[in-house]
Design brief:
Helix content: 40-55%
Structural class: alpha/beta
Low-confidence stretches: none
Distance between the termini: 25 Å
Largest sheet: 5 strands, mixed
Strand content: 5-15%
Shape: globular
Strand order of the largest sheet: 1-2-5-4-3
Number of strands: 5
């Protein structure tokens, strides 16, 4: 039975500050989504946490190590820059940014023909990963907000991600996988 979705934002679980700001901008909200630091913590929230038996939407990036939980899921959409997974038995959806986050950022910026240097961020993957992981330690980071705002407003790929997230926010338990594939 669906619970009260006045607190819908507590069903959206991003992995890092980048994902948190991205989800909040895409869903046009200032509500505090259920930020969990690290992919394992996101998956544990779905497996054992408050959302184990509830509707849930997670956003993670594709790491080198495959996520065991995804063995219980099917890819329902492959958009090139993200995969959308659906758990076989639960109303759990996982958006997986592809490739890993730092490469994803550069990929999206190349798609929209904007140089990463214009955000005072390094173009080197390893250095960008270090900055994202260790220097961006808050949702309020202005550099991060400016980068994501540009991505959200300019990238067609990210606009597809936005439509999918909004669909799940509105429909939650009443989702239709075929509708979701075509948003």
């Amino acid at each position: 039975m669906p619970e009260n979705f006045e607190k819908w934002y507590k069903h959206f679980v991003p992995e890092c500050y980048f994902d948190t700001v991205l989800i909040k901008m895409l869903l046009e909200t200032d509500k505090n989504v259920l930020h969990k630091k690290g992919c394992n913590n996101v998956i544990n929230e779905l497996r054992k946490g408050t959302l184990r038996d509830s509707f849930a939407v997670a956003i993670i990036d594709k790491d080198k190590k495959e996520i065991d939980y995804l063995k219980d899921c099917n890819v329902i959409s492959d958009e090139g820059c993200f995969l959308l997974w659906k758990h076989m038995n639960k109303p759990h959806f996982i958006f997986q940014l592809v490739p890993p986050l730092e490469k994803w950022i550069i990929f999206i910026l190349e798609e929209i023909k904007i140089d990463i240097a214009s955000f005072d961020l390094p173009a080197n993957y390893k250095e960008l990963k270090r900055v994202i992981k260790f220097e961006i330690d808050s949702e309020r980071n202005e550099k991060l907000k400016r980068l994501i705002s540009t991505i959200v407003s300019e990238s067609e790929s990210v606009k597809k991600l936005k439509r999918s997230l909004i669909y799940l926010k509105v429909k939650n338990y009443q989702f239709d996988v075929n509708e979701l594939k075509n948003v």
